[in-house]
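FIELD: query
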Amino acid sequence: MAPILQVKDLRKTYEGGFEALKGINLDIEEGEILALLGPNGAGKTTLISTLCGITQPTSGTATVAGFDIRTDYRRAREQIGLVPQEIHLEPFSYVGANLHFSRGLFGKPRNDALVDGLLKRFSLYDKRRNRVRELSGGMKRRVLIGKALAHEPKVLFLDEPTAGVDVALRKDMWDAVAELKKEGVTIILTTHYIEEAEAMADRVAVIRKGEILMVEQTSELMQRLGRKVLTIELREPLAGIPPALGGLDLELAPDGLSLSYSYDTRAERTGIAGLMARVQEAGIVLKDISTTESTLEEIFVDLVSEGAQ
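FIELD: result
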C-alpha cells in the first residue's frame, strides 16, 4: 500500500535565490503521527504551506492520497486539514458557524451531528453561539482544529498547535490527537515542545536549512542516539577525580558529592562493572546510584548542531 503522503525532490526557491526547500524526500504512512522538528527558519512552515497549496513549489512532486498537489490540487486539498501557526478567525463570526462554513467550502453537505461532535470533542459546544472575539487564545486555537477537521480530512497538519496554550488545553488537545490517530487520521505536527513529540510521534523527521537530516522511528532514534548517564552519589565529597579512576568518562559535580558516568546504550559493554570495581578499590563510599537517559530534545539539539558544522 502506497504512503498516504509522498514527497519527491520538492524544492522551493524564492525571488532573490533563497532556497527554502532543497530537494525534500519524505513518505508518510496512513494513520501515523510524524513530528517535524527543526530550528526557526528550517523550512517547516514552508514545507507545510507547499503541501497544502498555499505556496507553489519550484520543482519536484508531492501527492496526498494519490492526488498530485499541483495537477489535481482540489482533490489533494480535500484530503488535508490544516491548523496554521497564526490564528486567523473573523472576530464577529460565531463558533459553530465557523465549522459549518469550513465544511461547506469543501463541498460537503451540512452535517449537524458531525459538527456538534467536534464542538464537544474540543469543549466548544457550550460556546457554539458565542462570537470568536469572546474566546481566549487557547479556545480560538480549538476552533481552528475543529475547522480543520470539519470536512473529514485524511491528513491533518498541526503547525505549532499548542503555542500559547495553557497546560490544561494542551492536554485536551493531545488527547484529541490520540483519538484521531485511532480513527486512522494521519497527523504531521511541528512543535517546540519536544517532549510532546517524544510522547506522541511514531516517527521524527529533523529538518534544517530546507533539508531533511533524518527520518526515524522515535523509539529507534532514542535507542540509537540516546546515551545514559550513571550518577554515583557519595557520602563524602571529593576534591577531584582520584587517579585510580583516570581515563574514564567521569564528571565530578561542583560540590564534589557525585560522579557522573556517560555510556552508550548500544555498546556491547557499558563499562559499569569495571567502573564500580575501581570505585570500590579507590575506597570511595557510595550513598546512592541512579541512571538517566537522553531526551529527544537533547538528541535533536545534537543533530542540529552536527548539521551546522
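FIELD: remark
The radius of gyration is 24 Å.
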